[in-house]
Amino acid sequence: MQTLILDTRVTLSMTTTSNQRKRERNPPLQDVLTRIETVIQTVVTSVSKGEAPVLSVMNRSSWANVRFHESIGLVLKPDASVVTLRCDWPSSATKFALILKLLSVIYKLVQSDSYATKRDIYYNDPQLFGSQKTVDSIVDDISCMLKVPRRSLHVFATSKGLISGDLCYLEEDGTMVDCSSSTTAVPVSSNVSGINHIVSSAKFILIVEKDATFQRLLDDDFCTRLSPCIIITGKGVPDVNSRLMVRKLWDTLHVPVFALVDADPHGIEIMCIYKYGSVSMAFEARSLTVPSVLWLGLLPSDIQRYRIPEEAMIPFSQADERKINSLRSRPYITCQPTWENEIKAMQRLKQKAEIQSLASIAPRFLTRVYLPNKLRYGCWI
């Protein structure tokens, strides 16, 4: 079975050169400082002239600002539209001030070669920022504005993902991390770029949408029972660190990457984030996406193939209808007939199924029958 996992259907799709797989290196500290100084100098110059200073940030929520590249995913267009923030406009004055505040914080962190989490920054002045989401969004805006990877700002995000399996590596501070425990998962590192000396005999990587499913695989000793592998979950919509980790492992190990998600529009969108990225983070697509991700399950066609009981199915909601229509219009779906056919089948059925619905067939059907057969016979798309 292990040799079948490395079938040429998978390996041929991953024949990119090592140079293409290398992640863009972080710019020197002085370069980041210079870019911040340039922004501040523009503001000071405007003030000295008696003009209202202006900041321009990329519109990271617009599909019109991204294009689809099959070997990368969703990437930012060179001529992407920007949003103008003026300090004398009530609608943008608050965000203008918060950007300057965070630029000041980031400048001090980079200058002193120290680091902080986004959560640290928020709790230094929660009344000023209002919410953690505000800090998260502005840090990404600044990363995009300065055209540097977010990790170069010396601001880390606390990871929510978990990883387990045949994997050992060193953290940047020299800490050895062993993910091979059969009962306990390891939190995804908050500094993925600092990981080195990765050692693994894994035959494949399995992205798991939900924490509950991930724990089921862990409890059933999936990583060693079937074949040496690595399982990782972002616990729903993945955080940046989980996406960076999947990309780092793919770059290093050159093994197939599969996705196990619910047969519903939300699960498909989560899988697409790992594979093709998101609109809001399109400016960092080259370090976040894994275009070779394969859809292992739960496929909509599996619902009838495995005769999942009707009582385990969930009717479509209006939100599901809107989401599936949105998915069908996206360029990364329309270019993949097999994926598009599965989505059409789900829409015709007007029902969805969670991975847990397989338990209605048999308690351990997922780990003892479904996944082994899928991997053994190449039943992925």
TrEMBL record:
<comment type="similarity">
    <text>Belongs to the TOP6A family.</text>
</comment>
<dbReference type="Pfam" id="PF04406">
    <property type="entry name" value="TP6A_N"/>
</dbReference>
<dbReference type="InterPro" id="IPR034136">
    <property type="entry name" value="TOPRIM_Topo6A/Spo11"/>
</dbReference>
<dbReference type="InterPro" id="IPR013048">
    <property type="entry name" value="Meiotic_Spo11"/>
</dbReference>
<feature type="domain" description="Topoisomerase 6 subunit A/Spo11 TOPRIM">
    <location>
        <begin position="204"/>
        <end position="375"/>
    </location>
</feature>
<keyword id="KW-0479">Metal-binding</keyword>
<protein>
    <recommendedName>
        <fullName>DNA topoisomerase (ATP-hydrolyzing)</fullName>
        <ecNumber>5.6.2.2</ecNumber>
    </recommendedName>
</protein>
<dbReference type="Pfam" id="PF21180">
    <property type="entry name" value="TOP6A-Spo11_Toprim"/>
</dbReference>
<dbReference type="InterPro" id="IPR036078">
    <property type="entry name" value="Spo11/TopoVI_A_sf"/>
</dbReference>
<keyword id="KW-0539">Nucleus</keyword>
<dbReference type="GO" id="GO:0000228">
    <property type="term" value="C:nuclear chromosome"/>
</dbReference>
<dbReference type="GO" id="GO:0000706">
    <property type="term" value="P:meiotic DNA double-strand break processing"/>
</dbReference>
<keyword id="KW-0799">Topoisomerase</keyword>
<dbReference type="GO" id="GO:0042138">
    <property type="term" value="P:meiotic DNA double-strand break formation"/>
</dbReference>
<dbReference type="GO" id="GO:0046872">
    <property type="term" value="F:metal ion binding"/>
</dbReference>
<keyword id="KW-0238">DNA-binding</keyword>
<feature type="domain" description="Spo11/DNA topoisomerase VI subunit A N-terminal">
    <location>
        <begin position="95"/>
        <end position="155"/>
    </location>
</feature>
<dbReference type="InterPro" id="IPR013049">
    <property type="entry name" value="Spo11/TopoVI_A_N"/>
</dbReference>
<dbReference type="GO" id="GO:0007131">
    <property type="term" value="P:reciprocal meiotic recombination"/>
</dbReference>
<feature type="active site" description="O-(5'-phospho-DNA)-tyrosine intermediate">
    <location>
        <position position="123"/>
    </location>
</feature>
<keyword id="KW-0413">Isomerase</keyword>
<dbReference type="GO" id="GO:0003677">
    <property type="term" value="F:DNA binding"/>
</dbReference>
<dbReference type="GO" id="GO:0005524">
    <property type="term" value="F:ATP binding"/>
</dbReference>
<keyword id="KW-0547">Nucleotide-binding</keyword>
<keyword id="KW-0460">Magnesium</keyword>
<dbReference type="GO" id="GO:0003918">
    <property type="term" value="F:DNA topoisomerase type II (double strand cut, ATP-hydrolyzing) activity"/>
</dbReference>
<dbReference type="InterPro" id="IPR002815">
    <property type="entry name" value="Spo11/TopoVI_A"/>
</dbReference>
<dbReference type="InterPro" id="IPR036388">
    <property type="entry name" value="WH-like_DNA-bd_sf"/>
</dbReference>
